[in-house]
């Protein structure tokens, strides 16, 4: 292999390039002239080889000792945590997430592997008495087989970790395709996994385009389940492909998450919650609160404070400890964000602050966080997922109107409320259509040991994370026996 050029991992080894493949340059969004890494792009042929290698290893791994699986997963988690600063710096350089957030993401990845190391030892079944005399019943769970995992660019190590770890824990083999925008974190994870003691073929990683590599994995008859996180449009296409050939499918597809702020809210808490949930990670989170719904009694003071705090955010290089918000991930996403900002102004919303591209030394795809007031429910900036630091604020009369506005969306991932009222907090938790509900907390920010997922157009299939992950990564068998 050429010095400095990295490749996919298939059947227990990093693949030697043939010499005619395309090269992918991974550039730093804080400084686009800096190349983080170069990669040989995989193709459909290599994707087929990866699936076949996973299938060949599936029976052995499915029947492996749970202690072996626990030890492997624990070693992976331990090395991730031991290398947290190095991996966080890499993540910040390729994705633009500020270092403190990157450190949190790396920690979460390591903890996910360690959590599923313990879950491997908790495998259990159920025993029932039959309604027929002399008959016993066992209910057991078994691996699905080969699982295709397709992850997005906004969490380059955490999302792969919370998909790969349970897949391996429950005895499945993996073919993993990361987003091409963030291959370095995926490669680092694969390199750690390669030394964990897994048999060849159990884990495979393909760096390549979705139109060839991803499509091959999705359509391959030996791939029995597909776990995808990304856009709703792509998710719907994957669902159609999976259902047509009767494969299991798990989709996380984003959201347009509301945060209600009521008149009785603690203003300091509410402003912090809105700021963190809306703008941190450059707003590039499917759980970001991009719709604020604020009651009229607190609206003026709240928006004044929020505007001041938004203006004070420092936008800059992701590696600078003083930076609050790093760059947008790439020029294409920056153009999308700027297009929505132009749309908001054209539709009559008031741009309270931000919304301009910033020039910094070294270039970089920097954007001032944009805060829109006087927003109407029919505006695109209020209704459509932008995936950038663009926040819309809607004024309403009371809780009832706020709740109706929060529910007025085709999505249902995360939703939040800031209030000191137990009555309203409990009503919101019970009646919100979102899969995750936050009270006096940002809509973005979840734990690794509990279920993650939404409803409506946000999610499809079994929940991710925690013990609930076994519902997707296993199949149930009911056995009857004459006793």
Q: What does this entry look like structurally?
A:
By secondary structure, the chain is α/β, with parallel strands linked by helices. The protein is built from 15 helices and 23 strands. The chain has helices at residues 44-62, 66-82, 84-95, 99-119, 158-169, 183-194, 210-219, 232-244, 267-279, 296-312, 331-346, 380-383, 399-407, 422-431, 470-473; strands at 5-6, 9-10, 13-14, 23-28, 31-40, 126-129, 135-143, 146-150, 173-177, 203-205, 223-229, 248-252, 258-261, 291-295, 350-353, 357-358, 366-367, 370-373, 390-396, 414-418, 436-439, 459-460, 474-482. The strands form 6 sheets. A 7-stranded mixed beta sheet has the order 15-18-19-14-13-20-21, sandwiched between helices. Helix 1 (44-62) runs parallel beside helix 7 (210-219), helix 2 (66-82) packs antiparallel against helix 4 and helix 3 (84-95) packs across helix 4 (99-119).
Q: Which keywords apply here?
A:
Aldehyde Dehydrogenase, Chain A, domain 2, Aldehyde Dehydrogenase, Chain A, domain 1, seven-stranded mixed beta sheet, single chain, 23 strands, 483 residues, alpha/beta, 2 domains
Helix count, DSSP H or I runs of 4 or more residues: 15
Counting DSSP E segments of at least 2 residues, the number of strands comes to 23
The global form is: globular
Strand order of the largest sheet: 15-18-19-14-13-20-21
Largest sheet composition? 7 strands, mixed
Quick take:
With 483 residues, this protein is an alpha/beta fold. It contains 15 helices and 23 strands. It has helices spanning 44-62, 66-82, 84-95, 99-119, 158-169, 183-194, 210-219, 232-244, 267-279, 296-312, 331-346, 380-383, 399-407, 422-431, 470-473, and strands at residues 5-6, 9-10, 13-14, 23-28, 31-40, 126-129, 135-143, 146-150, 173-177, 203-205, 223-229, 248-252, 258-261, 291-295, 350-353, 357-358, 366-367, 370-373, 390-396, 414-418, 436-439, 459-460, 474-482.
């Amino acid at each position: 292999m050429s010095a400095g050029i990295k490749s996919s991992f298939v059947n227990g080894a990093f693949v030697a390039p043939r010499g005619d493949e395309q090269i992918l340059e991974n550039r730093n969004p804080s400084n686009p002239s800096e190349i983080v890494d170069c990669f040989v792009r995989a193709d459909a042929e290599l994707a087929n080889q990866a699936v076949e290698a996973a299938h060949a290893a599936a029976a052995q791994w499915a029947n492996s000792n749970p202690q072996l699986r626990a030890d492997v997963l624990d070693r992976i988690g331990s090395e991730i945590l031991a290398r947290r600063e190095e991996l966080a710096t890499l993540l910040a350089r390729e994705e633009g997430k500020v270092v403190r957030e990157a450190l949190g993401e790396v920690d979460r990845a390591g903890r996910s592997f360690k959590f599923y190391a313990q879950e491997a030892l908790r495998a259990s079944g159920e025993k029932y008495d039959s309604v027929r005399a002399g008959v016993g019943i066992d209910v057991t769970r078994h691996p699905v087989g080969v699982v295709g995992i397709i992850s997005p660019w906004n969490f380059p190590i955490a999302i792969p970790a919370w998909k790969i770890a349970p897949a391996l824990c429950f005895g499945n083999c993996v073919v993993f395709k990361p987003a091409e925008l963030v291959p370095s974190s995926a490669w680092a994870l694969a390199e750690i996994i390669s030394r964990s003691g897994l048999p060849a073929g159990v884990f495979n990683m393909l760096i390549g385009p979705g139109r060839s590599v991803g499509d091959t994995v999705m359509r391959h008859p030996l791939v029995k389940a597909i776990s995808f996180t990304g856009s709703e449009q792509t998710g719907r296409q994957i669902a159609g492909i999976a259902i047509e050939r009767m494969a299991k499918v798990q989709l996380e597809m984003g959201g347009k998450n509301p945060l209600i702020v009521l008149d009785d809210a603690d203003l300091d808490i509410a402003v912090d919650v809105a700021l963190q949930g809306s703008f941190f990670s450059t707003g590039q989170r499917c759980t970001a609160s991009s719709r604020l719904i604020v009651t009229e009694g607190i609206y003026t003071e709240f928006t004044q404070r929020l505007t001041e705090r938004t203006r004070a955010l420092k936008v800059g290089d992701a590696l600078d400890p003083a930076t609050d918000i790093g760059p947008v991930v790439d020029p294409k996403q920056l153009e999308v964000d700027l297009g929505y900002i132009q749309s908001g102004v054209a539709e009559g919303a008031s741009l309270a602050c931000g919304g301009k591209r910033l020039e910094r030394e070294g270039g970089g795809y920097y954007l001032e966080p944009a805060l829109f007031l006087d927003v109407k429910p029919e505006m695109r900036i209020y209704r459509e997922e932008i995936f950038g630091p663009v926040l819309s604020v809607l004024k309403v009369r009371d809780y009832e109107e706020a709740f109706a506005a929060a529910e007025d969306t085709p999505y249902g991932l995360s939703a939040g409320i800031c209030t000191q009222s137990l009555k309203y907090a409990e009503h919101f938790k019970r009646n919100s259509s979102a899969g995750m509900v936050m009270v006096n907390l940002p809509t973005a920010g979840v734990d690794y040991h509990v279920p993650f997922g939404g409803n409506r157009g946000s999610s499809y299939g079994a929940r991710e994370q925690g013990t609930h992950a076994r519902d997707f990564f296993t199949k149930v068998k009911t056995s009857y026996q004459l006793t």
